[in-house]
Structures are given as C-alpha cells and as structure tokens.
Amino acid sequence: MEVTDNDAITIRFVIEHQLAAFQKDDAQGAFAFASPAIQAQFGTPENFIQMVKISYPAVYRPRSVFFEEITTIQGNITQPVLVLAPDGVPLRALYFMEKQPDSTWRINGCFVVSVEGKKI
Length: 120
Hints:
The chain has about 120 residues and is α+β, with helices and mostly antiparallel strands. Helix content is about 40%, strand content about 30%. Strands 1, 2, 3, 4 and 5 form a five-stranded antiparallel beta sheet that branches.
C-alpha cells in the first residue's frame, strides 16, 4: 500500500494525539486512537492505559519525540518514532498503523526497540 502525503500527516496526527492523551492520563482519548483489534484485546480504556504505563514507559511519558520516515515492516505501514525514555535512554517506537474502512488511521500495535546511543 502506498502512503500519500496526507496519510503521513494523518498518521503523525494520530500518534501525537495519543501521546498527548497519555501525558494527561486520558485513557479514553488514548484508547480512541487504537485499532478495533487493539480495543478488543484490552476491552477498556483503563486496561489499555495501565498496560502502556507498565510495559511502555518510554511511550507513556517520553522526554522527547522525533518522527522518522514512514516505512513498511512485514507488510505493515510503520511510523518509526525516536523517543527519549524518562530515564534518558533513546529508543525507537515502531507504530504499526492500520487504515480503517472509513479511511481513518488507527494504531494497530507499537514495538519499542533499542537505538545505538548513550544515556542522556
């Protein structure tokens, strides 16, 4: 699938707004940007935000974020985002994106991988 410039802008908007919702502990707001499959997996906004809080502290409370170029990983449209974790460790969050039947974009998973670098 080809990603248009408008798609790229929308994908960034979705991720930025989910990150902003995490900053405000807005479980409902953050959950709204998750794909239907992720919503079904966690059931409630509270379950979802609790999982992110525990398993993804770098995404839940990043010190900074930097969007890289969208790519495809194993057939998934993926937005890599460099994040600086609360403890100062640089990480790359790989957001798997899914276009919905109504043409909106939702987050269909996020994987955090290490980045070569030192603690800042």
